[in-house]
Amino acid sequence: MFTGLVETLGKVIQIEPIDSGIQFTVVTEWENPDLKLGDSIAINGACMTVTKFSDLGNIFQFYASFKSLELTNLSRLGEGSVVNLERAMAMGQRFGGHMVQGHVDGVAKITSRKQIENEVEEFWVEIPKDLLRFFVKKGSVTLDGISLTVVDVVDGKIQLILIPETMQKTNAKFWKVDGKLNVEVDVLAKYIENYLAKRGESEGN
């Protein structure tokens, strides 16, 4: 489980095809390094497993299968790409953001970006049609591992307003029009939809 509060940024320094996927090597700097083999890390919001590490985890590797590459934007990473990183939640820590599972539901496309005031940026992002039912104004969404609030929903797109803090601490500073973002919808919306669907089935019998 994650929170969608990005801890730090990492840079991809090596990409190596192996078996049925790709092994990525990432260099970063944790504020409190404690990485272990088998730990879960959200890479641009996709939950991956640490397969090797050195330098207290400031250099680590993870493996992404072809299926994971197909369902996320990890297939678009190249050497030098900057990724958002978040380690799995620890018991007892404060819970900011919202509940994030690290299970990417689809890939969205940035359609517009503009600065509106004092380094505050507005983005419009096109959401896959099969996920639109989970989006409401003021609802939560995770994009590339960042917990964000949906400002508006119009014609299959969501509006986002990103403050300077978010722009500075995440890879959102590098987002470009037509860029692809990993999307994880609010898990509470999934539960509500499932509940209503089952109640409808029950009432129909």
Automatic annotation (TrEMBL):
Any Pfam family hit: Lum_binding
Catalytic EC class: transferase
> Which residue intervals define the domain Lumazine-binding in the entry?
1-98, 99-196
The residue spans of each Lumazine-binding repeat are 1-98, 99-196
Catalysed reactions, as listed in the record: 2 6,7-dimethyl-8-(1-D-ribityl)lumazine + H(+) = 5-amino-6-(D-ribitylamino)uracil + riboflavin
- Biochemical pathway: Cofactor biosynthesis; riboflavin biosynthesis; riboflavin from 2-hydroxy-3-oxobutyl phosphate and 5-amino-6-(D-ribitylamino)uracil: step 2/2
EC numbers, comma separated:
2.5.1.9
Q: Which PROSITE patterns match?
A: LUMAZINE_BIND (PS51177)
UniProt keyword terms in alphabetical order: Repeat, Riboflavin biosynthesis, Transferase
Instruction: Kindly give the InterPro entries that the UniProt entry links to this protein.
Output: ATP_synth_asu-like_sf, Lumazine-bd, Lumazine-bd_dom, Riboflavin_synthase-like_b-brl
Gene Ontology terms, MF aspect: riboflavin synthase activity
| Task of the protein | Catalyzes the dismutation of two molecules of 6,7-dimethyl-8-ribityllumazine, resulting in the formation of riboflavin and 5-amino-6-(D-ribitylamino)uracil.
Q: What is this protein called?
A: Riboflavin synthase
